[in-house]
Amino acid sequence: MAENDEEQPTDQQPTTEEALKQWRIAERTVAVARRGRLAAEAAAVAAAEAAEAAAATAEAAKSALAAMALAETSAAKTAAAAKATALSTRADSADQDAETAMAEVDEAEAHQRYRDATSRARDEE
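The structure corresponding to this sequence follows.
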């Protein structure tokens, strides 16, 4: 019983007032115990949810690590392809420069042949 309870002789029954007082004290004790039990149950549920969340976070981190590794591999392949494309484009550009130079030489020669032809035609008149 609580501190405020008066001790009753064992052969005497409590009065109505004393019985009511004891009952109210017992009700408060039960209410506190129930709140404690509910708090403990809520804490247990929260702990279980936290454990599930931690496991999910670990799985997500593992998946993120795998995705990062795939992204790194993909980036390396993309870089290699870009390098190959750049080298190929440089080679194509060099080939085009050479073709342009040859075409310019051919055009200059054709132009010279035309001048020579027109000069001969004038001389023949």
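The helical segments are 16-124.
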